[in-house]
Design a protein that fits this description.
The protein is of the alpha/beta class. It is built from nine helices and 13 strands. β7, α6 and β8 form a beta-alpha-beta unit. The longest helix is centred in the N-terminal third of the chain and has 13 residues.
């Protein structure tokens, strides 16, 4: 699998907005942070455009994405925020453009669609991690930001997870793939849905009804995803919603129940998702997942 080159001081990092619109005030702290790492920050032409909830029209957003993809001087691309809209910019006919000038592309949530495209169509690694909208002057020294810096400059963090009652012991290796559960569910059947056979699947989500979590997990069961993976890592299931008549299980319990069918390691409490401790990881990298009664470790191979 193609791994983009790590960064060095003086390299250029571009910021684009492939989904929801964003303001200069919301990117200011990230720009200062990237500059403090010795990087030159390039803002895309239409970064602060607006078209209803989007950061400009599909045409403008795709222009900015491909302009940075095609620029050999841009060594990394940070997606400013999620929301919705990234999948509208993706075309399998553009895959060779991404491979011509490989670079790290960073984001999470709605950017799961882009990670899936890069993995499935471009055979390329990317970074699931914090976006400029999440960076503040107060959190630049915290793991969410520091793990992104580590990976961009060649580090490979080791993740030690707190034990969870729903963990299933075991050891698995494979490529770490996945992202936002709602996005993966919506990508099912598209050419951007990641190949899961023998890989370790990561899932996280935000602000979903609990019965939606059950429905989406049942879809992953019935489409063969859960039967094909070698391990499951569950991140933040944040700010879940319920109906007037309660569903009766929280998100973790739903996932635990469904995973009882499979004899593979399962690890909850992975530090990634829609919360403050959204640590970066390399999407598509070979990893080893070890789960036992005492702790859980995920490490790069």
């Amino acid at each position: 699998m193609l791994q983009p080159a790590y960064l060095k001081k003086g390299d250029k990092i571009g910021i684009i907005a492939p989904a929801r619109k964003i303001s200069p005030a919301e990117t200011a702290a990230a720009i200062d942070c990237f500059k403090s790492w010795g990087l030159e920050v390039i803002e895309s032409t239409n970064l602060y455009s607006s078209d209803n909830q989007f950061a400009g029209t599909d045409t403008k957003r795709k222009h900015d994405l491909l302009a940075f993809v095609n620029d050999p001087n841009i060594k990394a691309i940070a997606c400013a925020r999620g929301g919705y809209g990234t999948i509208r910019l993706l075309d399998i006919n553009d895959a060779l453009l991404y491979r011509k000038n490989p670079k790290w592309i960073i984001g999470y949530s709605d950017i799961t669609a882009l990670h899936g495209f890069l993995y499935r169509q471009c055979n390329m690694q990317s970074i699931h991690g914090i976006m400029p909208v999440n960076v503040t002057s107060a959190n630049t020294s915290k793991p969410a930001v520091q793990t992104l810096r580590d990976i961009l400059f060649g580090g490979k963090p080791e993740y030690r997870l707190k034990n969870h009652n729903y963990n299933k012991a075991g050891t698995a290796t494979g490529r770490l793939i996945g992202g936002n559960l709602s996005m993966l569910y919506s990508m099912n059947g598209t050419p951007f849905y990641p190949a899961t056979s023998g890989n370790i699947l990561f899932l996280e989500d935000l602000d979903e009804y609990l019965y939606h979590i059950d429905r989406m997990m049942m879809t992953l069961k019935m489409n063969g995803t859960l039967g094909a993976i070698s391990g499951l890592v569950v991140g933040g299931m944040t700010d879940m919603r319920d109906n007037t008549i309660p569903f009766g299980e929280d998100a973790e319990t739903i996932i635990h129940r469904i995973m009882q069918t499979y004899n593979i390691p399962v690890a909850f409490n992975f530090p990634a998702g829609h919360h403050e401790n959204n640590q970066a990881f390399i999407h598509g990298a070979e990893v080893r997942l070890q789960v036992n009664d005492a702790d859980c470790v995920l490490e790069y191979l």
